[in-house]
Write a structure and sequence with these properties.
By secondary structure, the protein is an alpha+beta fold. The protein has one domain. Helix content is 20%, strand content 34%. Strands 3-2-1-4-5 form a five-stranded antiparallel beta sheet. A hairpin with a 5-residue loop joins strand 1 and strand 2.
Amino acid sequence: MSFDIGKSEDTGSFEPIPAGLYPAYVEKAEFEKSKAGAEYLNIMFKIFGEKYGNRVVFNIYNVMHDKEQVRNIAFSHLKKMFLAHGMEESEMNVSSKEELLAIVSPVRVMLKINIKTDSYGAKNVITGYDSLDEKSVGTTDFNASDIPF
């Protein structure tokens, strides 16, 4: 087997994108386990549009945490995301992890992104969600034809 690494394409930057509002959709959602054994929902959002299109941002939702307060924070963030997507509260009642993954999968929202620096360096963090309406779309380089579905 040979490897022609010299012909590989540039995969882009891993630097955080600037703070702002970006159109995105859920590319992948799955339950994972922490080193301590706690299960959480990990969502990978893919940004679309001309600028920063195809960049991804991850967010963890501790929906299975032992502490009720931690779970409530996760539920609050998910609710804000679902409302921004246009869901009704009555559609947010789920009874299993599989149902939760099913309602997360089609989500398309505007992500409010900031930059956080910790011991690992600078990274993007999601600080809020907004709907993909004309007002919010006008603040980005977003074009309706950019939606990949």
